[in-house]
Amino acid sequence: MSKTNFAEVNQEALLKIFTIPEAPDSTLGKIERHLSENLMGFLGEHIVAREKPLQEIEQNFQASSVPEQPVYVSDHTEFLLDKLVAHSVHTASPRFIGHMTSALPYFLLPLAKLMVGLNQNLVKIETSKAFTPLERNVLGMLHHLVYGQDEAFYKRWMHSAEHSLGAMCSGGTVANITALWVARNRLLKADGDFAGVANDGLAAGLAHYNYKRATVMVSERGHYSLSKAADVLGIGRRNLVAVATDENNRIRIDALREACEKVAAEGGKVMAIIGVAGTTETGHIDPLDQMADVAKEIGTHFHVDAAWGGATLLSNTHRHLLKGIERADSVTIDAHKQMYVPMGAGMVLFRDPGMVRAIEHHAEYIIRHGSKDLGSHTMEGSRSGMAMMVFSALHVMGRSGYELLIDGSMEKARYFAKLIDDQNDFEVITHPELCLLTYRFVPTRVKVALKTASAEQVRRLTPHLNALTRFVQKRQRETGQSFVSRTKLTPAQYGREPTVVFRVVLANPLTTQDMLAEVLEEQRQIARQATSLLGALHTELRELGLTNRD
Amino acid sequence: MSKTNFAEVNQEALLKIFTIPEAPDSTLGKIERHLSENLMGFLGEHIVAREKPLQEIEQNFQASSVPEQPVYVSDHTEFLLDKLVAHSVHTASPRFIGHMTSALPYFLLPLAKLMVGLNQNLVKIETSKAFTPLERNVLGMLHHLVYGQDEAFYKRWMHSAEHSLGAMCSGGTVANITALWVARNRLLKADGDFAGVANDGLAAGLAHYNYKRATVMVSERGHYSLSKAADVLGIGRRNLVAVATDENNRIRIDALREACEKVAAEGGKVMAIIGVAGTTETGHIDPLDQMADVAKEIGTHFHVDAAWGGATLLSNTHRHLLKGIERADSVTIDAHKQMYVPMGAGMVLFRDPGMVRAIEHHAEYIIRHGSKDLGSHTMEGSRSGMAMMVFSALHVMGRSGYELLIDGSMEKARYFAKLIDDQNDFEVITHPELCLLTYRFVPTRVKVALKTASAEQVRRLTPHLNALTRFVQKRQRETGQSFVSRTKLTPAQYGREPTVVFRVVLANPLTTQDMLAEVLEEQRQIARQATSLLGALHTELRELGLTNRD
């Protein structure tokens, strides 16, 4: 190779970084230990995030060109630790109780290095070999968890080339899109000279079957990924019909039936009904069994979005809450939520192993007909060996281990709800069905007043309380000792008035009762600092003539 | 908590796995070292895959239920090493030259553990903080690599809440779907009382604009993910128009123009033209600049699928091959291909930072309006901090480092093509434009005969040669010393007769010239064992009266 001497030297250095490092005392070995120690230090810190405005952090990420010259791994590592890791979010902190991202069991960390080091590509057996049966096994186990078919069923289908019990996905969104893609393609299937929606497109499909529109029915608490799915699949967000919920944020079966009838009466067709098993905002579970009845009656695809709540099936104590899920045509479960697996482990499961034919595709150089390549039935192409993380978590914790974790989280949520209700100046807005609840801070006098307030009085007080909740949540996040999230609900007990609430997810096994009490105390202290908001609230209270009830 | 004693003991053990392991001499520390050593051993092996039939491997992955009881991490680790790792594919082997998955630089492995350990979720800043500016920085650098805007441009847009220079995706398929989703939504945008395809759906969109169909134009060598995209987006595979290629597998501009005119004449509308920068099967690059002209003339979205070839832009020596890419509206690049980043690092880039508005979405509890949350402009929801791996690879190797790697791969491909052509019994089918080429084994007498064979003679010989190529590739893969892939092409020099070929991608920096020579020798030996196939071939040769030319 006709290179200058300088370039040759560089090339040697480059080849070296692709060559197996020798002993633990190699430079890379030392860097690895340093990184590990730092990571453990970070994960052991009790704060949730260091207070540093985003604008300041952005200053470290301004360079617009790819750096011209290489830097030493050690120097770059220091940069990462100082500028990135130090200003990451402590999602593993037991005081980080605001989102579904929680702590991981530590044994998954060395396995992550193994997974990345092997760098398998699950799209085809030629780049995955044993990882393909492993992934099919994971899908089989989850399928069994949901559908509970007998051994013969799994023996027949789990490793069958032309079938698939589901698909690993990067996350719940892709899983939901995949499920609705299957539903759409099965509804508008080939028929006579119509080659099917997959080939001829959606407009031709609707025209062929003489449907004015295709709709997807879901409760108004459905995840925003479903509206994304309706957009991506060409259905249109307007055709994702948001059905009213009851006072517990569960879809109203009468409203669902009515909405389905309306679609049909207007010449449309219901493409799918979606049950939510653990809404993102309140954690409630739709009445799946009754929804399955409706789906059966009108002959439509029944999908359950159990991205978050699906793990509850691992608890024999609580799996009854999801009764009816076994009647779903497809189910979404994210292992990176309540199954304690790292980010990127979504799954969709199909009751009927042949259902994936509706989205099957092949190519000449890979995923040929008859191969067991997983890529023929997935929306994504190249994919990592993430299934190994799910497989390992299932084995090392076992169903009984998961049961303890899940039961523990639910008990903790109930404990916290009781603790909140016992305070004079907090109130639960939605009680936990799983380990998620919402609440807000309400000054004592207001809490008393609300008990007997008229609809009009509620309507006038709520904006003040919303501002206060926003203030507390933001300040608490910025202070970085603990973190709860917030959302906006329309609680039945307050006349469906849009109400901002704190939202907590109690999935971290290390969160203690004391920590929960501290979270309330911290919020109380912050609220007391909101003097102008509190002033406005009390003025409103006086104007409404509600102060004397104190 | 009212648990039995047995459960309490278990719970303690469970909490322990979420608790930071102490010193390196802890059990987990020992397991980690053991895993690391085993991984290094595996990566150091010179075989590509151990010979073990898939059916036998499947025996280890038959259990259909989630295991009831936990197992020790150490026991499970042994299972993984023995049953999974040992039967994985050595994608890092310098003799694994069949696919785009190659070796990784070792410094990325400890970073992978860091990434997983931090378990950030890039959908929103509340679960990613500094990772969000980092990801935006990575997208900015790649945008600059493609579009080369000035500093002021990146200062203005890179960290702007309402804009995005692109999106990180799990892979090139999601990147391509995202690009076409943007193209579709921009074509069928809101207008008058039509609320846009995102809201009203595809059928309404086509009707509103009075388009009989929307089509996507791509060469017949386009990746199968594009046909998947056409299906998912409701366009229909039939409306993905495969345009004829020239003798170098590049789209014919005259044929493209003609196809576009035909669509328009029939009342359809071209939604996008896609240029391929590095076809998956032959590695050729479409004439992007001329395609940009056509796209401009007819006013359509121009997308470039540079999933594999995009990294070539890092080489000043060769980036001219992609001239015209800077005129694309959107570009797909996979960092997990020629950028040597682990699986799962796809990217789509948009020339205009406002383009992503076409697919924007928000939710109450996250990605609210005005936030810098990356989730408002991505197809996926929850995503890992994979951007860190791209960021680190760009810094530790630098543009100049990548240039050496890419230039080295291209030189190696040219060397191998020459080596093949120099053999009496091999022939190159497609020469490398980047580091990918295809070839086949052809017994000496056949090679000579083919030089003057008629179309009919070629037509009769080809199936025999195809069978031979299939045999050799399969046996070679099973033997596991080296791996090349295979595909089916329609080479111009053989009258477009469907021809099975070996396909090699020379991206591994550790692949040597000697190894390439050994691959040919191994294939020659395998071919000699195919006595019945060779017999049939020679019979055919005799019947065609071509033997005397030997």
Automatic annotation (TrEMBL), chains A, B:
Gene3D superfamilies: Aspartate Aminotransferase, domain 1 (3.90.1150.10), Type I PLP-dependent aspartate aminotransferase-like (Major domain) (3.40.640.10)
Protein keywords: Decarboxylase, Lyase, Pyridoxal phosphate
Lyase among keywords: yes
GO cellular component: cytoplasm
Names of the cofactor(s): pyridoxal 5'-phosphate
UniProt key word Amino-acid biosynthesis: no
SUPFAM superfamilies recorded: PLP-dependent transferases
GO molecular function: carboxy-lyase activity; pyridoxal phosphate binding
Family: Belongs to the group II decarboxylase family.
Name the record gives this protein: Glutamate decarboxylase
